[in-house]
Each structure stands twice: as C-alpha cells, then as structure tokens.
Amino acid sequence: MNKKVLLLFIVVSFISCNSIRIKYPDNFQYIPIKTKNYTLASWQKITDKHKPIKIYVEGDGNAYTAKGYPTNDPTPKNSVLQKIAFEDNYENIVYLARPCQFIKDKNCNQTDWTTGRFSQKTVDSMFEAIKKISDNNEIILIGYSGGALLTGLIINQYKNNLNVIEWITIAGLLNHKDWTTYCDLIPLKDSLDLEEIPNIKQKHFLCKKDKVIPNELTLRRVDKKDCIFINTTHDLKNTNHFLVE
C-alpha cells in the first residue's frame, strides 16, 4: 500500500469510525454530509420525493461527565431520538447528528459541545447539511433538547432558504439564558440564543417529569395551546413507542 492510499485510509477511518458501530434499519442509509466547518453524520430514508422530509436534529449528546467536566466526545449514548427516527414509519425520515457527534473531525474542539454549542458556525453548518438533504422540498424540522433551540435558530436565520412547514420540539430548550440562570449553570458565552420564537406552525412535546429543562421555562416562550404533555422524564424513559406523528 503506497503512502497516499494509506493516508486516505487513515483519514476515512478516523472520520467514520464511530458511525459503523450504529445499528440501523435496512431501509436507512448512513450518509456523512460535508459542510464548510464540519462533516455531519446522518441516517436517511427517502422513499417519496414528493412528500415533505422529517428531519430529526439531535440534542447536546454526551457533552459533560456526571461530575460536570467536558467530555472528549459528545456522541450521545443510546440516543433515544435516533430510536424514534428509526421507528418512524413516515416515508421520508432523516436523523441528523450535531457537529462532532459520531464524526470527530479535525475542526472539533470542546467549545463546540460546551459553551459554543449554539455558535454561528454550528448554525451555518447545520443549515448547510439540511439544505443538502432537502434542496427545495418541504421540511418538518424536529429538535430534541438542545436541538430545539438550534432548529429554531436555523428557521429564523434561513427562513428564505429553507421550506420549513412545521417546527416540532421534544423536551426542548428554547432559550439558554433562561435555562442557565434558572438552573445556576455556566453561561453559554460562545452561543447564540433564540430571542424570538419562529412564526410558523409548531408543536412542543413537554415531559411532565423533566428535571433537565423544567416545563416552566418552555411555557415562558411558547403558547400552551401548542404544547403536548407526555408523562415521562427528559430522556423519554419508558416511552419506547413514542413517535412524532
């Protein structure tokens, strides 16, 4: 094996090593999406190009240890959102990971999943990936936990570039300043915040037993008529058959 081939093999192995450990249904395809700043992991099932695409955006993942220290890898452990996406019977489903989850490329650093998890760089990269997935097709954009805030930022910043017809959040964080103040956490000083809720059709699933993002914080930002309360914890425990319809 010559040096160029060996180097290419090492790079490809480094970029995709985490993804090959994920078990996914036969009708899904693993597709890494290269953007300006990151390569993002996605699993896609597109069977009817004439229907909207439901894109599930992951939460913050394994960002901190139990003792509050930043991890070296934000890849979620046993992602409940990924399970929900894989079990969704709708024709067009995409599970989209956040930067540095599953694929930790050379541009990744701890700021990307800690204080800068909602940075402009992240917003732009996620938009770029979503645009490549959807082109001009209609999108139902679904964000779990911190993915809710991120999808809200994407909708607001790129309303003229994406055809998002509905925004759905699950146990969603909608304003990180509210959250860090309420829970006495380190401020996300390198992140943008969602100062204005997107003005589109929306639905918010709130977990009644959520101790990570209390329902009170969500209800400060959205109308209760747009909320659905589910009897579970933030990690959607004991909701194996919970699906977004």
Characterize this entry briefly.
This protein has 245 residues and is of the alpha/beta class. Helix content is 25%, strand content 19%.
Notable traits:
245 residues, alpha/beta, Rossmann fold, 8-stranded mixed sheet, two-stranded antiparallel sheet, globular, disordered N terminus
Structure, explained:
The strands form two sheets. This protein has an eight-stranded mixed β-sheet with strand order 1-4-6-5-7-8-9-10, with helices on both faces. It has a two-stranded antiparallel ribbon with strand order 2-3. α3 (120-134) crosses α4. It is built from six helices and ten strands; from the N terminus they run αβββββαβαβαβαβαβ. The chain has 245 residues and is α/β, with parallel strands linked by helices. It has one domain: Rossmann fold. The chain is globular and about 45 Å long. The chain has helices spanning 3-16, 80-87, 120-134, 146-157, 176-182, 215-219; strands spanning 29-30, 33-34, 39-40, 42-46, 53-57, 92-96, 138-144, 163-170, 202-207, 227-230. Helix content is 25%, strand content 19%. α5 (176-182) links the parallel β8 (163-170) and β9. The model is unreliable at 1-20 (pLDDT under 50).
